Amino acid sequence: MSHRYCSASHDGSWISWFLSLPMNEFLCRVPVDYIQDRFNLTGLDAQLGSQLSDALDLVLESEFDTECFQQVETDLDAAAKLYGLIHARYILTARGIDDMCMKYQRGDFGKCPRLYCHSQLMLPVGVSDRFGESHVKLYCARCRDIYQPQAHCAMLDGANFGRSFPHMFFMQLTELLPSPPKEQYTPRIYGFQVHATALMPPERATCSSCSSSSTTTGKALGIRRSKAATKVRPSSGEAIKQRSPMRRFSFTLNQ
Ligand SMILES: [Zn+2]
């Protein structure tokens, strides 16, 4: 039996046991009648092959006992994969969106770490629809970016949710769609806004500075990087690890 499956307690069915595992906190409960409907399993045999029938039996097991069951890890993995694939389909239905909405509003998926998103609630999303390709990410509808989840949920496969889920969610529940952030962080040094070229890697900044120096019309105070970059020579007989010379900046008015 796998260590991943050892520590959780459950109250009867395989689904209850599976959902009680800390790593599965993002998953909602798929109703048994949805799983039993063969129409909802269409095409899953392509991903599970001959394991589909046994995996389905295990997922639908109502008297699952971790103390005495003898399933090997491959059986549990197949059942987890089957549940995940069904889950990805279920959460795109009206019932599934309602179930996930309850978890969303409860804050089960966490809040956006970006300061200017002001603790916007997030939704799980996959960057692939196929199992085994990537772990789950969290999507913030305010800044429209994705983030790594907390460690205990970070190993959950992203295919449990798929790439479409959060976007379908907000298409159905438009009243929950947040407005875009009004604020954006501005890099400053001693209160002065840092020039755009100083925020780029050296090679890009040089090209950008050359091409845009004659056309820049900004009135804001900026900081322009000097071209000087003196090489540091190691002293003889002593190995000195060379490092990049410190970048120098001068305060200038953009013209
Ligand atoms: Zn955000």
Describe the structure in your own words.
This is Casein kinase II subunit beta. Belongs to the casein kinase 2 subunit beta family. Tetramer of two alpha and two beta subunits. With 255 residues, the protein is an alpha+beta fold. The chain has helices at residues 14-19, 32-36, 45-48, 52-59, 73-90, 94-106, 165-172, 202-212, and strands spanning 122-125, 137-140, 145-147, 188-189, 192-193, 221-225, 249-253. It has a three-stranded antiparallel sheet, with no helix packed on it. The protein has a two-stranded antiparallel sheet with strand order 4-5. It has three domains: 1-90, protein kinase ck2 holoenzyme, chain C, domain 1, CATH 1.10.1820; 96-184, Single Sheet (N-terminal domain of TfIIb); 188-253, no CATH class. Helices cover 29% and strands 10% of the residues. Zinc ion (ZN) is lined by residues 112, 114, 117, 120, 140, 142-143. Zinc ion is lined by residues 112, 114, 117, 120, 140, 142-143.
